[in-house]
Amino acid sequence: MESFQKCILLPLILTASLPGLGFCYSITKGPENATVLAGSEARFNCTVSAGWKVIIWLFQGSPVLTVLSSQGSVETTERFTSRNYSTGDEFTSELIIHNTQLSDSGRIECSIQQPSQNNFAFLSVQVNGSLLIKNSTLTVKDNQTIEIVCEALGWAPAPDIAWMTNDSLVDKSSYVTQQSPGSHGLHNALSTLTLTPRDTEVLTCLADIEALPSPQNASVTLIFDNSATENYYSEDNTSTWVIVLAVVLSFLGIVLLVVIVVVAVRCCLKRRGSTYQNEIRKVSAEKKKEGGLEDRQRSGSENLGYIPEELWNTEHSSGLSSLPPVFSKFAGPDDNLHISSVPKVRPQRRPDYPISPKKIRNVTLV
User: Fold this and answer.
1) pLDDT score for 288
2) The pLDDT of residue 173 is above 60
3) What is the CA radius of gyration of the chain?
4) Picking from 12-21, 180-189, 298-307, 349-358, which range would have the lowest pLDDT averaged per residue?
5) Whole-angstrom Cα distance, residue 90 to residue 161?
6) Summary mean pLDDT of the chain
7) Positive or negative, the Cα torsion across 50, 54, 59, 60?
8) A Pfam family name for this chain (predicted)?
9) N or C, which end of the chain has less CB nearby within 10 Å?
10) Residue range 157-176: mean pLDDT, rounded
11) Stretch among 70-84, 180-194, 220-234 having the lowest mean pLDDT
């Protein structure tokens, strides 16, 4: 491609230079150094005095664009274009490089086929990578020293890292930055900030390269908690109380289980005791009942018509003594006395009472 561009541009350069022999013109203002981000455009200006015939732009030593005073710009690729300006007797050609890449860094030259100074500049293409702080919010305790790590990956060149706290720059002695090579010519950086916060604050990590209009940043909010220590002890106390409560509840559970077992056993024993007592009472009642029946069968019912033999003999003897004397049938006829038999006397019995089968006494008097 470059050889093709040279083959096209060389005849044009020779053609433009022949009529210009003997004429004096020069570059009044050459291109200036430019630093751009990869993917953006890079612009270079070259201003020449009146009478110029040809301007040739060279990129890293190879011609990429030609401007003829008679024909204008001759562009051979879309990546390199130009814009032209005229001011009085001067003419300005602007070279525009599109979609710059890291490999485009190098020398840019403006040539008018005349010896001149200040006809070249340098292009620097830089890459801004990623920047991050792992934790976006942190809660810190009183007198707690913490480390905040800021990581920059895929930069070219390696960025300059700085820290700010509440819009004030942090002293460089408070942080350490380490750089390391990455892939494809890129660089990484790791910055560690060590501090002991005294209040809630916002920490900002800044990564800067020349091509950036302003530093790239990442922030973290430090929340200063005075009650963090109290919460720490509170959590410990809570854990202790939980353990104590668990032990107490376990003990109470065991005690309750023992009480339930004891109550159940006592209930069973009481139930058995009452059953035994009922049986004893039942047996005792049956024995009393049998004993009463046996007594009734043994003694029988009371015989109200019974008169003891002693009393009966006494009364009978007194009755006999009161009788008149007995005389012989030979005593005389005038005696009207006659002897009659005494009727048999039986004791009165009440039909309501049964007679004892064991004691039956009958008394007969003659």
Assistant:
1) 73
2) yes
3) 72
4) 12-21
5) 44
6) 78
7) negative
8) C2-set_3
9) C
10) 93
11) 220-234
CA–CA separation, 348 and 24 (whole Å)? 194
The pTM of the full predicted model, rounded to 2 decimals, is: 0.55
Token pair recorded at residue 227:
């009650």
* Residue 245, phi then psi, degrees to nearest 5: -65, -40
List of long-range contacts for 67-72, beta carbons under 8 Å, 24+ apart: 67/93, 68/12, 68/16, 69/16, 70/16
Relative to beta strand 187-195, strand 175-181 is antiparallel
Token pair, residue 95, equals 């070279």
Two tokens, residue 22: 């003997």
- Which strands sit side by side in the sheet containing 187-195, from one edge to the other? 130-133, 146-155, 187-195, 175-181
